[in-house]
Automatic annotation (TrEMBL):
This is MFS transporter. It comes from the Bacteria. The chain crosses the membrane at residues 55-74, 81-99, 105-125, 137-155, 167-190, 211-235, 247-269, 281-300, 306-330, 342-362, 368-388. Residues 216-395 form the Major facilitator superfamily (MFS) profile domain. SUPFAM superfamilies: MFS general substrate transporter (SSF103473). Keywords: Membrane, Transmembrane, Transmembrane helix. It comes from Teichococcus vastitatis.
Length: 395
């Protein structure tokens, strides 16, 4: 940063803030969908056990987006890829709206596919932030773009709350039509953002298995998968457990909102912490915070227990995931970055998709206690990887 001309530094920060806004708008659509999908699925599905199927399909599509996103980013560049993602988010909102309007559960589920693809592509905003930033500013850039989620955590539920009845008697129809405008705003912001060109293409591409075998890649990808997987496992089951404990929808919504804010608010400082103390140390702190979440959740089932546990989980996720993203930037050469990022997100969101499907089943069959106990072996894996890297200085 100190060696940069003031104009270059200002342009870099401007690009990061534009990516921050794009991330916020994209996440707002997803947070809004989280607030609505189970309710709509329950009202449209004949079999009420399928109420959460749309969200599960959306997370599966997010995982599947990793491979085509990598191809588009590698061949056409970041801008084309992000515009394609915005198109998927727009189409998803329109199909969701049609499903609500026609009262068709299959059509509503279909909307989850393009919506999930759009959300999956949008996960590369954090990688774009790393690419437009200098090495010294990179952790702060990644953390700041991810902090765009704090606006989503506030804006998404409020948008649902104030637009759900605008086109009555079709509940949430107006919400989806407004959500369809958000990706169009993203496209406008992207037109003002200076993004890196496609990576250089080499005559002989590095075999993917070689990238996957690098200890640094393994540590980054598995840490990201543990961070997102454990968070999603507990978050998804929390409203169900609170319902069984006698809490209403409003109480569980408040806990989820506190959790969402805790996930993204640390982004304003976690980048600075990583720059000062290193990604591995911050990841270690994140694993301890996530373990503390499970300990609090197991200690009681009052509103305070759920609130504190989910807030600890949110901060732990942020430290682990931002740290893992920073480590990933050190695990590949410039010409390999898109392939490495696509492989990383396939692993991470494949884990998320599995936990989205498994959370309800684990909670129903084994209970809240066992679900929280499952966090400890996963977190121990991440902790072991960081300690091993620190001890042997793996590259």
């Amino acid at each position: 940063m100190s060696a940069m001309a003031p104009a270059d530094a200002a342009l870099m920060k401007r690009n990061v803030w534009l990516l921050f806004l794009c991330q916020a708008l994209t996440n707002a659509s997803t947070v809004g969908q989280v607030a609505m999908s189970a309710l709509i699925g329950h009202s449209l599905a004949t079999d009420k056990s399928l109420a959460t199927l749309p969200m599960a399909l959306q997370m599966a599509a997010t995982m599947a987006a990793s491979i085509p996103a990598g191809i588009v980013f590698a061949r056409l560049g970041r801008r084309a890829g992000f515009v394609l993602g915005a198109a998927g988010a727009f189409l998803g909102s329109i199909v969701f709206a049609l499903g609500v309007w026609t009262g068709s559960f299959p059509l509503y589920c279909l909307g989850a596919i393009p919506a999930g693809l759009g959300f999956g592509i949008s996960q590369h905003y954090r990688f774009a932030a790393a690419e437009v930033a200098t090495p010294a500013y990179r952790p702060r850039a990644v953390a700041l773009v991810m902090a765009g989620g704090i606006l989503s955590a506030i804006f998404g539920p409020e948008l649902v709350k104030h637009t759900r009845d605008t086109l009555a008697p079709f509940l949430f129809l107006g919400t989806y039509l407004i959500l369809a405008l958000l990706p169009l705003i993203c496209v406008a912001l992207l037109s003002r953002t200076v993004l890196p060109p496609p990576p250089p293409r080499t005559a002989v591409a590095t075999p993917l298995r070689e990238i996957l075998a690098r200890p640094a890649f393994v540590a980054a990808a598995l840490t990201g998968a543990v961070a997102y997987g454990t968070m999603n496992l507990v978050m998804t089951a929390t409203p169900l457990e609170m319902m069984l404990c006698g809490f209403g929808i409003g109480a569980s919504a408040t806990v989820i909102q506190l959790h969402a804010v805790s996930m993204f608010a640390p982004g304003f400082v976690s980048g600075r912490l990583i720059a000062r103390f290193g990604a591995r140390r911050i990841i270690l702190v994140g694993t301890l915070l996530s373990a503390a979440c499970a300990a609090v959740a197991l200690s009681g089932e009052r509103f305070g227990h759920f609130s504190v546990a989910l807030m600890l989980l949110g901060v732990g996720w942020n430290f682990m995931f931002v740290g893992a993203t920073t480590l990933l930037s050190e695990a590949h050469r410039p010409e390999e970055r898109v392939r490495a990022q696509a492989a990383n997100d396939f692993i991470v969101f494949g884990t998320v998709a599995c936990t989205a499907f498994a959370s309800g089943a684990i909670h129903a069959q084994a209970g809240w206690t066992m679900l929280n106990l499952l966090l400890f072996p996963a977190l121990a894996l991440a902790l072991g990887l960081m300690l091993l890297q620190r001890r042997h200085a793996l590259a």
